[in-house]
Design goal:
single chain; two-stranded antiparallel sheet; 6 strands
C-alpha cells in the first residue's frame, strides 16, 4: 500500500515505532515495518488512518487478509485483535522468556494466525526483553 509521508509518520508515531501486533520495535527489524490495513480493502476496509496500523513483515505476511479465526481454547470463530479498537495489554502478555500469550479469545486466535511464537521470533523477543528494549 502506498501512503503519503504524513500518513506514514502518523501511523509510526501512534504505534511508537513498534509492530502493533507483536510489539517488535522497528529498530530490531531488518526490514522496515509496513503500514497495513487492519480490515483489508477486499473486506471493504478503508484507507483512513483509523483502519491502518504499523506491522512488522512477519505479522503482516501471516495475517494476510484474515480478520477472524478459531479460538484454540473454545473452538469458536472470533475476530482477530484490532489495534484501533482494542488495547494490547487487555489481549496479550509477553512473558520473560519471550512468549506472547493470548489472554482473550481474540488474543489467542491472533497469536496463532500471526505465528507470534515461532522459535526465532521468541528468541529475538527474549533478547530484547533482557536488554530492556521490548515493552
Amino acid at each position: 500500500m502506498k501512503v503519503s509521508r504524513d500518513l506514514r509518520e502518523l501511523v509510526v508515531r501512534r504505534a511508537q515505532d513498534a509492530c502493533e501486533y507483536c510489539r517488535l520495535p522497528q529498530v530490531a527489524s531488518l526490514l522496515p515495518h509496513q503500514v497495513d490495513h487492519i480490515i483489508g480493502k477486499h473486506h471493504r476496509g478503508s484507507d483512513d488512518a483509523s483502519n491502518l496500523c504499523l506491522c512488522c513483515i512477519r505479522c503482516n505476511l501471516n495475517k494476510g487478509p484474515n480478520i477472524a479465526s478459531i479460538d484454540p481454547e473454545t473452538g469458536l470463530l472470533v475476530a482477530l485483535y484490532h489495534p484501533r479498537s482494542h488495547t494490547w495489554r487487555d489481549h496479550f502478555v509477553a512473558t520473560t522468556d519471550g512468549i506472547i500469550k493470548g489472554l482473550t479469545a481474540e488474543g489467542r486466535a491472533t497469536v496463532l494466525v500471526l505465528a507470534m511464537n515461532e522459535e526465532d521470533r521468541v528468541r529475538l523477543r527474549t533478547l530484547l526483553i533482557r536488554q530492556g528494549k521490548y515493552s
